[in-house]
Amino acid sequence: MKVAVIDSKGKETGRKVELSDDVFQIEPNGHAIYLDVKQYLAHQRQGTHKAKERNEISGSTRKLKKQKGTGTARAGSIKSPLFRGGGRVFGPRTKDYTQKLNKNVKRLARKSALSLKSRENAIVVLEDFVLEQPRTRDFVAVLKALGLENKKSLFVLGDINNNLYLSSRNLERSEVITNSEISTYKIMNANQVVLLESALEGIETNLKK
After folding, report:
1. Residue 209 — very low, low, confident or very high, per pLDDT cuts 50/70/90?
2. How many independent structural domains does the chain possess?
3. What ranges in the chain are assigned the alpha helix state H?
4. Residue 53, CA atoms < 13 Å, CB-side half-sphere
5. Same domain, yes or no, for 87 and 109?
6. How many angstroms separate the CA atoms of 196 and 103, rounded?
7. CATH code (residue 7)
């Protein structure tokens, strides 16, 4: 599969690159995509939610009143959930939400996601470019040139580029990552995936394993 390479001004360079059919042209597996996205979202949960139960409350252990003869219900502890400041019944507890997923399934999911984007013509190959300094307006100019200023976009770099990353950090709809950070969720969440030329080799090497 050959794709035209464009520059940061949105113009064609006259060159084309070959995208591997084993990565960008497979039959998408929807269930693999579902499992990988589900795992990614589960791993975003901290699981630190916790409410104290009656055995964790600090307070007196004395019996509040005599058992009989008061005309009211029995009460044995100030830490009872029935009283203000008492423990909570069946409250949330800390929990680990991490899920295991086979590496081959994750690899299949990412190739399926890229293949779906390829079918939708939502993948662009961009010539490598450099920003001289971190400046959001310079990155916004690139987005406008590519027609992505109002779309969710994912830029995939071949290597860490601090100027490019810092320039995009304030933009809610754009994200810049390296090819080693690529995930099924980020691919599916973007309207347009922008692959820099230097990222192609790393993506294909990682997903062909």
Report:
1. low
2. 2
3. 21-24, 30-43, 103-119, 136-146, 162-168, 184-189, 197-207
4. 7
5. no
6. 25
7. 3.40.1370.10
Chain centroid to CA 37: how far?
Answer: 8
The string of pLDDT tens digits covering residues 80-101 is: 999 999 999 999 999 999 999 9
Closest CA to 49 of 105, 103, 93, 86: 93
Find the domain containing 70 and state its range.
47-96
CA 83 – CA 57 distance, rounded (Å): 12
- Per-residue pLDDT tens over the stretch 28-72: 999 999 999 999 999 999 999 999 999 999 988 899 999 999 999
Q: Are residues 194 and 169 both part of a single domain?
A: yes
| CA atoms of 46 and 98, how far apart (whole Å) | 10
Task: Give the three-class secondary structure for 46.
Answer: coil
3-state secondary structure of 189: helix
**Hunting for tokens 């009872």 — which residue is that?**
80
Same domain, residue pair 144 and 90:
no
Burial of 137 (0-12, 13-18, 19+ CB in 10 A): exposed
Q: 207 phi and psi, to 5 degrees?
A: -90, -10
